């Protein structure tokens, strides 16, 4: 059976170039990057080269890149590594659980957190971040792009607020990396987390930008790896794969690949919105690239605000009234389409998405929402297939749903 994977925000497959780049580091060049012999030096050189690529990706110095196990570790490091009893922490109610659960843990250690709510569009208003600050605020953490809606947050403005207030600023960049150009200097952040597996790299590896001189305590202690900021033998194949994925991601932003993904996403979204009782959660349908942002006007879209809300290229989150989201996920899976309802980490749970609820959706509509997130390798044929399958599944489920009388279509 043909299968189309539209759950890229959960994870992505390796690109063949990434797989090939990693290949020698499993067996031939297996050395420990800390060893002084030739085998060790080969590994060390590979890690150094990868660090230079990541520095280019982030726009920072090599010494400011720490390799780690991924987004969760980067997020946890920012919070556990910086906050101490009596500190105040400002974040948002739409963050990934790697931030939210860490904030919950810190509450047990005398750190109070303010969770700033988004506007109905999914956008965090920088003025609300400003309002949440207190004299004892030590850290702000806001995501670059939301994993469920794809909405890009105004991190530059928040960076300015952090600088003026003398507060550290961490960005969870996991869902933005590879989809928009990164520049930690322009963002004005002190820490920035990414994860390889969200950008066609391997699972279990990521990187954290830590601005030079930051007093971040390392989560793991032991050896003196990563300038004593992260103990543990380096995952050399993973790091090489992450660097290759970052290199290809930079290329994709330049060569039109990401614009092509945006065009496909827009066609998918417009096609699905032809169905009655549907709508987009979060943001206006705007093409991803902040520099080349353009609205996609059409009868299916209505603009309720003049505030430009940008979204990453690959994501659309759509509500289907009179449907149970989980039922639609299963129906689509049986027809060969992989999508997700809420975030992947919560799938299987019956609670509606905390992100959609924070945006003001009622429980029923939040539960009736699906996230479609396209791979970088998505094709016209993938979109055609999904546009054929979704109406069939929706019509069928609505026809058998006791709450859907008269709404099929
Ligand atoms: N932050 C965001 C926004 C995410 O979407 C995810 C994964 O879904 C993470 C952090 C966690 O990343 P990882 O899977 O690398 O631990």
- The order of strands across the largest sheet is 2-8-7-6-5-3-4
Query: What is the CATH third-level topology name of the largest domain?
Result: Aspartate Aminotransferase, domain 2
User: What is the name of the CATH class of the largest domain?
Assistant: Alpha Beta
Helix percentage = 25-40%
Order of helices and strands: EHHEHEHEHEHEHEEHHHEEHEHHEH
The quaternary organization reads as: single chain
Low-confidence stretches: 285-307
**Number of folding domains?**
2
Bound molecules: pyridoxal-5'-phosphate
Looking at CATH, the homologous superfamily of the largest domain is Type I PLP-dependent aspartate aminotransferase-like (Major domain)
Using only C-alpha atoms, the radius of gyration works out to 21 Å
Structural class: alpha/beta
End-to-end CA span: 26 Å
CATH architecture of the largest domain: 3-Layer(aba) Sandwich
What overall form do the CA principal axes indicate? globular
- Beta content comes to 5-15%
Overall pLDDT confidence: 91
Q: If helices are DSSP runs of H or I spanning 4 or more residues, what is the number of helices? A: 14
What does the main sheet amount to?
7 strands, mixed
Give the helix/strand layout.
Layout: E1 4-5, H1 16-22, H2 38-58, E2 65-68, H3 71-82, E3 88-92, H4 97-107, E4 112-116, H5 126-132, E5 137-143, H6 155-165, E6 168-172, H7 184-187, E7 191-195, E8 206-210, H8 225-228, H9 236-254, H10 257-272, E9 278-280, E10 315-320, H11 325-334, E11 337-338, H12 354-358, H13 363-367, E12 369-373, H14 380-400
Parallel strand pairs: 1-11, 3-4, 3-5, 5-6, 6-7
Antiparallel strand pairs: 2-8, 7-8, 9-10, 10-12
Helix pairs in contact: 1-9, 2-9, 3-4, 10-14, 11-14
The protein binds pyridoxal-5'-phosphate.
Pyridoxal-5'-phosphate is lined by residues 70-72, 75, 96, 98, 143, 147, 172, 174-175, 195, 206.
